[in-house]
TrEMBL record:
Keywords annotated in UniProt: Ligase
Source organism per UniProt: Penstemon davidsonii
Presence of keyword Ribonucleoprotein: no
Domain (AMP-dependent synthetase/ligase): residue spans on this chain: 27-418
Name listed for the protein in its UniProt record: Uncharacterized protein
Pfam families: AMP-binding (PF00501), AMP-binding_C (PF13193)
The keyword Mitochondrion appears for this protein: no
Family from the record: Belongs to the ATP-dependent AMP-binding enzyme family.
């Protein structure tokens, strides 16, 4: 045999055959292929893909001119408006990292996020400027004036009272459109040299004292954006309604999917059943994502608001708290085709899907809904999904009964938690990402959540740490002992339920007044959606060592039935 001069695997990478994966290139292609197609619609504001590409480059250029560079954090505090969408391209085009902030958080929590991420720039919707201002004051007071004030950019919106815009401008903020004018619409942005570079930072509340910063990379965002389209069967030119907050896992990466498909984003500042049906009827909506709480609002809309029958099949993706089969059945009856997914911030949003099988078509509606309520199988871009016994790290039997922890592995798993090596060590133990969710694996390979470890409550698609709520409630002068668990909620899927033992000597004769006082106290100390919607008084069940038996409280909360009318 002759000498082989070059092995088949020795062919080298070069600029012609290898480049770092990034979703930013989707925008450039959309502007090339469909420059005149609508990219964004928000009230009277309409942009084409050509305009959106120029505006995103202007944003990148303006940020670069102000010193934004690789590793700089740019925080955006805004609802679903064009500037929030543009930030998903313009910020990383400058090399900076986007931190889309949950607008439902209180100032104390936002202050932690901004300080922990060392945000150098804050882009904030005019209505939320006072919230950002309060958060910055908390940081300044805590650091005794040593905190370097970030660049403040206020985003104007025609749908808001202009007094809030004037308030921000009087305090020195730069208006977003004026800021864009300082940038070059032909800015020659460059993709990252390494696809492992960070593209976004998002915060998720666990059971720790503070939220954890989830860092995502360009490669994962690229793969998840395309995987969304493949999994959902989305076609080029899809019309997508933003009912899902873009601040939530970057809109489950659909911000980038829409550019890949040259589709149209309909921005929805306020999510109501009337606005959803109106957009479907008048703007050609074909797809939207939403937590089960939003779906519940849609199917129970008054007849005057519901535009039925639907003018076309509307595809819906839902995730968060597992939707009850009855809700899935009701959506189907109204003409919506629901895809049920599951995932976490740490997995770029939904990364499993209850993939529909043709053989289910002939089953009764109730059985179809039951099967579709499971969390399902891996996304195309997810390399590994399993349910394991945490004692020996071996997969549990596929019997639909044996409970284990759901674990993930692959390119759509986060880089890690920012500045939290201990949490990273725990999360990535034994080569898997540990979700903390407990579930089973069925004989057909589909997984299903059965319980949630670490007592996370999912309300309206948002995670709530019961421990953090308890820590606040313990500050109430009347509370001796408290435990918070999830209770079914007709509107939000789940809501916090507080079981309270009062301090000795406290007057418990008027429990309704006491409950209202505790809720009022909670609203002054934490995000409104964290506040328990129900308060139950009495002794708490405990083990011999004094540990509260939360599993018994969960059973009791479930037996109480769903909360009929949530306060938020």
């Amino acid at each position: 045999m002759g000498v082989v001069e070059r092995d088949i695997d020795d062919l080298p990478k070069n600029p012609a055959n290898y480049t770092a994966l990034t979703p930013l290139g989707f925008l450039e292609r959309a502007a090339l292929v469909h420059p005149t197609r609508n990219s964004l619609i928000h009230g009277s504001v309409v942009y084409t893909w050509h305009q959106t590409y120029r505006r995103c480059r202007q944003l990148a250029s303006a940020l670069t001119n102000r010193g934004a560079t690789f590793g700089t954090t740019v925080a955006v505090i805004a609802p679903n408006i064009p500037a929030m969408y543009e930030s998903h391209f313009g910020v990383p085009m400058s090399g900076a990292v986007l931190n889309a902030v949950n607008i439902r958080l209180n100032a104390q929590t936002i202050a932690f996020l901004l300080g922990h991420s060392q945000a150098a720039v804050i882009m904030v919707d005019q209505d939320f400027y006072p919230l950002a201002e309060e958060a910055l004051k908390i940081i300044t007071d805590k650091t005794k004036g040593k905190f370097k004030p970030p660049l403040m950019i206020v985003i104007a919106d025609e749908n808001c009272d202009q007094k809030s815009l004037q308030y921000a401008l009087e305090r020195g903020a730069i208006e977003y459109e004026k800021f864009l004018e300082t940038g070059d619409p032909e800015f020659a942005w460059k993709p990252p040299e390494d696809e492992w570079h960070s593209i976004t930072l998002g915060y998720t509340s666990g059971t720790t004292a503070s939220p954890k910063g989830v860092v995502l990379h360009h490669r994962g965002a690229y793969l998840m954006a395309l995987s969304n389209a493949v999994i959902w069967g989305m076609k080029e030119g899809a019309v997508y309604l933003w009912t899902l907050p873009m601040f939530h896992c970057n809109g489950w990466c659909f911000t980038w999917t829409l550019a890949a498909l040259c589709g149209t984003s309909i921005c929805l500042r306020q999510v109501t059943a009337k606005n959803v049906y109106s957009a479907i009827a008048n703007l050609g909506v074909t797809h939207f994502c939403a937590a089960p709480v939003v779906l519940n609002t849609i199917v129970n809309a008054p007849k005057a608001e519901a535009i039925l029958p639907l003018p076309r099949v509307v595809h819906v993706m839902t995730a968060g708290a597992a939707p009850p089969p009855s809700l899935l059945s009701a959506m189907s009856q109204q003409g919506f085709r629901v895809a049920h997914t599951y995932g976490l911030s740490e997995t770029y949003g939904p990364s499993t899907i209850c993939a529909w099988k043709p053989e289910w078509d002939s089953l009764p509606p109730e059985e179809q809904a039951r099967l579709n309520a499971r969390q399902g199988v891996p996304y195309v871009a997810l390399e590994g999904l399993n349910v394991i016994n945490t004692q020996n790290m071996k997969p549990v039997p596929s019997d639909g009964k044996t409970v284990g922890e759901i674990v993930f592995r692959g390119n759509v798993v986060m880089k890690g938690y920012l500045k939290n090596p201990k949490a990273n060590e725990e999360a990535f133990a034994d080569g898997w990402f540990h979700s903390g969710d407990l579930g089973v694996k069925h004989p057909d390979g589909y997984i299903e959540i059965k319980d949630r470890s670490k007592d996370i409550i999912i309300s309206g698609g948002e995670n709530i740490s019961s421990v953090e709520v308890e820590n606040v409630l313990y500050q109430h002068p009347a509370i001796f002992d408290v435990s918070v668990v999830a209770r079914p909620d007709e509107r939000w899927g789940e809501s916090p339920c507080a079981f309270v033992t009062l301090k000795p000597g406290m007057d418990a004769s008027n429990q309704n007044r006491l409950a209202e006082d505790i809720m009022k106290f909670g609203r002054s100390k934490m995000p409104a959606y964290w506040v328990p919607k129900s308060v139950i008084f009495g002794p708490l069940p405990k083990t011999a060592t004094g540990k509260i038996q939360k599993h018994l409280l969960r059973v009791k909360a479930k037996e109480m039935g769903p909360v009929k009318k949530s306060r938020l």
